[in-house]
Amino acid sequence: MQILFIVNEAAGNGKGKKVWRQLQKQLTIDYQVAFTEYEEHGQEIAKQWAQQQQDKNLLIVVGGDGTIHEVFSGVVHNELIIVGVVRAGSGNDFARYFPTFHNAQQIEDYVMTAAMANAKIDAGKVQLGNRRDEIFVNNAGIGFDAYVTKSINTSRLKFYLNKIGLGKLSYAIAVIRGLFSFDCFNVTIRSDEEEWQFQRAWFVAMCNQPYFGGGMKISPAAKADDGRVDITIVHDISRIKLLLVFVTVFFEKHTKFKEITFLQGQHFDIIVNDDKIDCHMDGNYSGSVQQGSTIHCTVQQNAWNIMTKSSK
């Protein structure tokens, strides 16, 4: 069996490098390692390596949700690759839902089992207007959550908070800032014979699992193996009340607000009725869509093999 580690040393503003160094000291099995050097490099490495495999092998990501997004996009629908993760980001929403490795001993115990336990998980697929299709593992979104993502990625605050172990607070702070500068938008959502119109929408979150934004359980019913994508729309709500929603979402109490709508299905068309609405995929900013653009969102069943057995 071959084992490849794809390491993003810059994840978590340097946490990836620290986690890898500690892991490297403890590993006693044979492995290969590749380091990401630029945006989307993880996808390139994973795709090239996966295409060379002729037997079932293990690929382990050391990084945060953005790195995981890249790597999974590179091995989608490859039956021979089992993916594991060692979390090293700041938000780590993937690790809140999916199983991960915590140390070298867990990895070695897993590799030494005769049949490495794994499960197939779904993926979300999004087409933004005329652009190429993009995959998401955790969630994708348009509107306020993407606006906040862009703000975080261009701010030094996240860097300093990560330095003192409070990186997850960067999202909460960016949310509060964005409450006073974001402009709401109108959106139409269609699925089969049904259509919904939402006025003054704050965001449309497309989810493959419940968590986003560093631990907020925005779509509590979302599951990564049910063949459906969950959509959460926050609309027609004041700025102050939205702040209350973000507080209650950690306790799953936001489901009681009439200004939050939950949809489930295999495919949706999301039509943006305002100009230049920001988008993200698994926390990676994906640019903006223009007025009148249609976003196609579907689910791809059994898209990846993920490790499911972890020793303690």
Strand-helix topology:
Blueprint: E1 3-7, H1 15-26, E2 32-35, H2 41-51, E3 57-63, H3 65-75, E4 81-87, H4 93-97, H5 104-112, E5 118-128, E6 133-136, E7 139-143, H6 144-153, H7 157-163, H8 169-178, E8 185-191, E9 194-207, E10 211-212, E11 216-217, E12 229-235, H9 239-248, E13 260-265, E14 267-272, E15 277-281, E16 284-289, E17 294-307
Parallel strand pairs: 1-2, 1-3, 3-4, 4-17
Antiparallel strand pairs: 5-6, 5-17, 7-9, 7-15, 8-9, 8-14, 9-12, 10-11, 12-13, 14-17, 15-16
Task: Describe this protein's structure.
The structure is a single chain. The chain has two domains: 3-122 and 303-307, Rossmann fold; 124-300, Sandwich (Tumour Suppressor Smad4). It is of the alpha+beta class. The mean pLDDT is 90. Helices cover 27% and strands 36% of the residues. The chain starts with a strand and ends in a 5-residue tail after the last strand. It contains nine helices and 17 strands. Helix 2 (41-51) packs parallel to helix 3 (65-75) and helix 6 (144-153) packs across helix 8. It has helices at 15-26, 41-51, 65-75, 93-97, 104-112, 144-153, 157-163, 169-178, 239-248; strands at residues 3-7, 32-35, 57-63, 81-87, 118-128, 133-136, 139-143, 185-191, 194-207, 211-212, 216-217, 229-235, 260-265, 267-272, 277-281, 284-289, 294-307.
DSSP helix fraction? 25-40%
Number of domains: 2
Q: From the helix content, strand content and strand pairing, which structural class follows?
A: alpha+beta
Major pleated sheet? 15 strands, mixed
Radius of gyration: 19 Å
Give the name of the CATH architecture of the largest domain: Sandwich
Q: How many strands?
A: 17
Order of helices and strands: EHEHEHEHHEEEHHHEEEEEHEEEEE
Distance between the termini: 23 Å
Q: Any low-confidence stretches, pLDDT <50, length ≥5?
A: none
The CATH topology of the largest domain comes to Tumour Suppressor Smad4
Helix run count: 9
Q: What amount of the residues lies in strands? A: 35-45%
Looking at the structure, what is the overall shape? globular
Quaternary class = single chain
Mean pLDDT: 90
CATH level 1 name of the largest domain:
Mainly Beta
